[in-house]
Amino acid sequence: MLGFLVRRLAQAIIVVLGVVLIVFILSQLIPGGECRAVLGPKATIANCAHFNRLNGFDLPLWDQFYHYVLGLLQGNLGYSYKFNQGVTAVIMERLPKTLVLVGTATLVALIIAIPLGILQVVKRNKPSDYVLTAVSFIFYAMPPFLLGTLLIIWLAFDANIFPVSPPGNASAWALFSDPRAFVLPVVTLCAITIASFSRYMRSSMMDALAEDYIRTARAKGASNRRVLYGHALRNALIPILTLLGLSLPAIVSGAVITEDVFNYPGMGQLTVYAASNSDIPLVLGTTLVATVATVVGSLLADILYAVADPRIRFGSS
């Protein structure tokens, strides 16, 4: 088990270093350099030379990369000239809000999707299975901006049941103190996630129920409930663990479209703002955070794999 974790951790470190290098290269490919992005296209050559000298952009590339990595190790992701503060500070202000919102939506989606997938297996090839499958496909194919807009029109404008959007100045924990204001964005995130997770759960349970150990358990007289929950469920959850691990980037970077539709000041809306206002350091900072979260999510998925299925721990030997 220890060797498995060491190998996966080493691979994760290599990938993170590769991501850092790619992000640094992207920062060098900005048309006109970061000087033009910050000072504007009318900046003179003298102004750009002074800007580059102050920020170290006149140094050789290897020196710039060294200082960039050194800054990352110290938690410095650059400086946002639009917000007039460090990128790290801007991200840390928005990150908790996204973690609470999207994390809660993912948890609710799991609580609903897993029993829903099991129900579809129990009722497979029956009208209820066909109905749930059709509904899942509809929500899975529906763009988040369309679903969010429809919910706003129906439940906020027409029925006047829920607010259009959460309060913009609320803290990260406002979801628990004023849950009514967060119903629409959470439902938007949940509906699409439930559609995806339930389909994977149904397919995984079908595969698990076709295994030899299930036939052996039935031959020994095990009840359907014990076969379903005691034998098949644990192995069927392994693909869900992968989805859960790979959903970490979404939790960190935020549902970009959903947060923008509901005007929620999280990581998603921050990324949209940075891209639309040419805040290059902030775009690269949010990109780096999201990609590192992807690597961490994959690592967590591997660890959960090893916990759920002991055979995976010794796969290399």
Show the helix and strand layout.
Elements: H1 2-28, H2 33-39, H3 45-55, H4 61-73, E1 79-80, E2 85-86, H5 87-122, H6 127-141, H7 144-158, H8 174-177, H9 183-209, H10 212-219, H11 224-246, H12 248-253, H13 256-261, H14 267-276, H15 280-308
Helix pairs in contact: 1-15, 2-3, 5-6, 5-9, 5-15, 6-9, 7-9, 9-11, 10-11, 11-15, 14-15
In brief:
The chain is mainly α. Helix content is 75%, strand content 1%.
Q: How would you characterize this protein structure?
A:
With 317 residues, this protein is mostly helical. The chain has 2 domains: 2-87, no CATH class; 92-314, MetI-like (MetI-like fold). Helix content is 75%, strand content 1%. It is built from 15 helices and 2 strands. Strands 1-2 form a two-stranded antiparallel sheet. Helix 1 (2-28) packs antiparallel against helix 15. It starts with a helix and ends in a 9-residue tail after the last helix. 29% of the residues are buried.
**For the largest beta sheet, what order do the strands appear in spatially?**
1-2
Which CATH class of the largest domain? Mainly Alpha
| Alpha-carbon distance between the two ends | 12 Å
Principal-axes geometry comes out as flat
Cα gyration radius (Å): 24 Å
Content-based structural category: mainly alpha
Main beta-sheet strand count, sense and barrel state = 2 strands, antiparallel
As for the CATH topology of the largest domain, it is MetI-like fold
Helical stretch tally:
15
Give the DSSP E fraction (strand runs of 2 or more residues). Answer: under 5%
N-to-C SSE series? HHHHEEHHHHHHHHHHH
Could you state the oligomeric state of the chains shown?
Answer: single chain
Q: How many structural domains can be distinguished in the coordinates?
A: 2
How many E strands? Answer: 2
In CATH, the architecture of the largest domain is Orthogonal Bundle
> What do the pLDDT scores average to?
85
Task: Name the poorly predicted regions.
Answer: none
Helix share of residues? over 70%
CATH homology group of the largest domain: MetI-like
